[in-house]
Amino acid sequence: MEILVASAVGIMTAAGIYLILRRRTFPVILGLSMLTYGVNVFLFATGRLAIGAPPILNKYADVPYTDPLPQALVLTAIVISFGMTAVVVMIALGAYLSSRTDDINMDDAATETGEDA
Amino acid sequence: MNHLLIAPVLMPAIVAPLIAMVTRHHMDLTRIFSLAVSVAVVIATLALGVQAMDGTVQVYELGDWNAPFGIVLVLDRLSAMMCILTAILALVINLYAVGSDWDKRGSNFHSLFQFQIMGIQGAFLTGDAFNLFVFFEVLLIASYGLTIHAGGARRFQAGVQYVVYNLLGSSLFLFALGTIYAVTGTLNMADLAVKVAEISPDNTALLRVGAIMLLLVFCIKAALLPLHFWLPASYAEAPAPVAALFAIMTKVGAYAILRFFTLIFGPDLAATQGLGGEWLLPAALVTLATGAVGVLGARDLGRLIAYGAIASMGTLLTAVALFTPQAAAAALYYTVHSTFAAALLFLVADMVIERRGAHITPKAPMAQNGLIAALFFVGAIALAGMPPISGFLGKLLVMDAARDHDMVWIIWAVILIGSLVTILGLARAGTIIFWKAYDATTKAPEADEQEEEAIHQPAPALPVVATFGLVAGLVLLTVFAGPMSAYATATAEQLFAPEAYIQNVLGVPK
Questions:
Q1: Over the stretch B29-59, which tens digit does the pLDDT of each residue have?
Q2: Domain residue limits at A43
Q3: Residue B492 and residue B501: Cα distance in Å, rounded?
Q4: Where in the cell is the protein located (chain B) (predicted)?
Q5: Is B178 in the A-facing interface, judged by CB distances under 8 Å?
Q6: Most exposed: A27, A34, B180, B467, by fewest CB within 10 Å?
């Protein structure tokens, strides 16, 4: 279990970072999504891994429980990263449609002639 | 509980959706609501400032849940000062945006603007690390909308870079918080301070990793070299009022560094000894140098000022990185100054760019050349740190605070030479734009009718008034330098004695 979760976080983060270093917006956005998946799983694991345990304290019996706080954090992080991904897709689309290129680099030629969009 | 504490967050949060949903087709109503809430936030933060003046730490428990289980807002001198600074800056910029019709050039300017204010105020007030992340996201998502306000290909491209960079920062922030939570089991800042101090010094590998990742995140926000790449393009391409508002955004990063590395990972803490200062100081000095060189080399006005902002962040973080009460006080004074100075220059630059384009080349003189030149001159000497404006005092305080440091000669040399280079760069730009225009030998490029009209268009009164408001702020900061630096010193003392903060947050009687 630990090895599975740890390698999942590691592989997703590595893939995410690799994709973010690309020059086109589409792989970069994919990379960002990968990275947020990686961080979500990582956050989930910060409350220690427990299988089949409820996130509720039981005051009548000493049963195992899992930390509920990371689950709340993950939920918040998922919502935020979902919203952010939507925003970055829209802005990237806007950039692509207005400049006809999805290169993440800015074209320096336009600066040199002093053109202002 | 004092409900005024949440007002700076709540008021923009209520008005922003109202503007977006109810009044979006009525520009006048939108402006009235937006300006009214900006004024109200200024009044509320000033009231909070008066309350925080005597050094009490006030705690607001959201939902009446006790810390560390619920989220708390905490008001101390530092929070109050940053909130007031944000509120005043927001009001001035709001006036400028209304007066110059920037808010009409795209949709939803005012609601995004208010959401951004909500995020910034929240980030300054919160006493919970995860809540800080949430407020960072609020202010970032609003800033994404604002950077691409009014559209245009280059603005969109700069926007993509800005968004990607900050999303990366947000992911790193989550990794950092996760790591710290895994070690300490809490995310309340006061509780973290207690738990971190209890950790045995030989078992701190994970904690140190978390602390360094947090530092990196805040350095991204503060545009510290080598994490500054997002700043020049996005500030230069963003609409002018937005760029001016962003002058406070970099300060959020500096604030977070100051807060976390005095309260939680304090300078005396064995577990994280030497994490902050040793790395931060050289990086801050390199940032200062790079910013100064950027000012000298910039070929367009927006970038020139963006690099000026980077240089001033370098000076600010140099003071922060010393981690002594005296240096922190200098940093706080310089924060107020550099926010006003950078915002002023962005607004003046907008007046220039609207008339003759961003490129620094000689062109025919524009309307009100003298007035705009005078404003640019004030902004330039403020940013470069020349007497008699407050930048000089700020830099003096920073240099004085560095006096006892081992690297004092390097720090002084970098600050002084950096100032000189900045002055050169600003003087070059100013002469070309404002004086070369009158040079008889200058052949103005053939301007078409539209450009001709733009050049001779005098500025409407309101933006000029707003700009003069910032000048007044700088002058007041100079005239009342004594009381202001006394307040900054008191703030720094409070920061370096976090016991009161911790006790108030964790032991509040119901």
A1: 999 999 999 999 999 999 999 999 888 899 9
A2: 2-51+65-110
A3: 13
A4: Cell membrane; Membrane
A5: yes
A6: A27
